[in-house]
């Protein structure tokens, strides 16, 4: 990727219409960010520490938790940095990195939700063949595939954005570097690239969503054929957490990238929900409705509390 730009850094103007609210936003966003990191780390510890949870479903949930740790970390540290009163400047390379990793992790999650839907489809529609179909080798290939195709999509979008010359204004009217706001600063006609980007950003989530819809249509048909009420309840309960997470993930994508007339304030609000709130809620969604995860999480918290108590006694003795 050649840097044809005379601009060496950009200035992040932040969230539109939030002047004089920096201190309050800093406290709120810092709390959300810390809670996101802690929640997803606890989910990882709960799954890794319990042999009962070493199944394909929880393997993919571990990968989702890793994505949910890094995804808000793309934009949140810099946002918290300038909300605390520090510099709003970001280097050209930093801006490129933000845009790449944001779309890399976002696309990876998109593919991952599709894989998780397929996993539930196999578990409910073909329970006797589940362990054969979702073998360790298949799970590893699917996990690597989500990151690989996420990397390809992010590389394409980043190259598309930064092949343009940036030679004039350098004030980014947003809280991080994303495609729509960066195209506004380019010193060239971006209409063709906007259409290509719109198709690319829209086509990938739409394709994944249709595959998820297909999986869950088959799942619903299979669940309705279950005779016992308890069996149907357990099957629906297993899928409800995943469906909730999918809705929380896809709604911001549609609102931000697929609306014909963008609104900076609405985009920023929805983007914050996507960057901070959804990754923060995912551990709650997957743990509150899952007895196995709650049980393992309780053991992890008890063990951590015991270790903290031991360290406190050693330091005070």
What labels would you give this structure?
3 strands; 317 residues; single chain; mainly alpha; 3-stranded mixed sheet; 11 helices; 74% helix
Question: Can you describe what's shown?
Answer:
- The chain is an all-alpha fold.
- The termini are far apart.
- The model is unreliable at about 1-5 (pLDDT under 50).
- The protein is globular.
- Strands 2-1-3 form a three-stranded mixed beta sheet.
- The relative contact order is 0.15.
- It has helices at about 20-50, 55-70, 75-85, 90-125, 130-135, 135-160, 180-185, 190-225, 230-255, 265-290, 290-315, and strands at about 10, 90, 170.
- It is built from eleven helices and three strands.
Q: Sketch the major β-sheet.
A: 3 strands, mixed
Structural class: mainly alpha
* Overall spatial form: globular
List the strand order in the largest sheet: 2-1-3
> Approximately how much helix is present in the residues?
over 70%
Low-confidence stretches: 1-5
Q: Into which percentage range does the β-strand content fall?
A: under 5%
**String of helices and strands:** EHHHEHHHEHHHHH
Overall average residue pLDDT = 84
Number of distinct helices: 11
Number of β-strand runs: 3
Radius of gyration: 22 Å
Termini separation (Å)? 59 Å
């Amino acid at each position: 990727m050649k840097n044809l730009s005379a601009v060496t850094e950009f200035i992040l103007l932040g969230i539109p219409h939030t002047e004089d609210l920096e201190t309050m936003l800093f406290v709120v966003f810092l709390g959300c960010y810390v809670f996101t990191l802690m929640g997803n780390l606890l989910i990882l510890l709960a799954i890794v520490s319990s042999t009962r949870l070493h199944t394909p479903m929880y393997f993919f949930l571990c990968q989702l938790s890793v994505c949910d740790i890094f995804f808000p970390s793309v934009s949140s540290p810099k946002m918290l940095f300038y909300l605390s009163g520090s510099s709003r400047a970001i280097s050209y390379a930093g801006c490129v990195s933000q845009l790449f990793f944001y779309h890399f992790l976002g696309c990876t999650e998109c593919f991952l939700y599709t894989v998780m839907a397929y996993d539930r489809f196999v578990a409910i529609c073909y329970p006797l063949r589940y362990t054969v179909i979702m073998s360790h080798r298949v799970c590893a290939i699917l996990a690597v595939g989500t990151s690989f195709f996420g990397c390809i999509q992010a590389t394409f979008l980043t190259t598309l954005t930064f092949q343009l010359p940036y030679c004039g204004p350098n004030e980014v009217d947003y809280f991080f570097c994303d495609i729509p706001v960066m195209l506004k600063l380019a010193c060239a006609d971006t209409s063709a690239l906007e259409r290509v980007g719109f198709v690319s950003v829209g086509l990938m989530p739409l394709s994944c969503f249709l595959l998820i819809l297909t999986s869950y249509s088959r799942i619903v048909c299979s669940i309705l054929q279950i005779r016992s009420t308890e069996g149907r309840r357990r099957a629906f309960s297993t899928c409800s957490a995943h469906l909730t997470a999918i809705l929380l993930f896809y709604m911001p994508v549609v609102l931000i990238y697929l609306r014909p007339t963008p609104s900076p304030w609405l985009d920023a609000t929805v983007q914050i929900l996507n960057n901070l709130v959804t990754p923060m809620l995912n551990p709650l969604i997957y743990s509150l409705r899952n007895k196995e995860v709650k049980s393992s999480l309780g053991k992890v918290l008890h063990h951590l509390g015991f270790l903290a108590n031991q360290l406190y006694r050693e330091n005070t003795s």
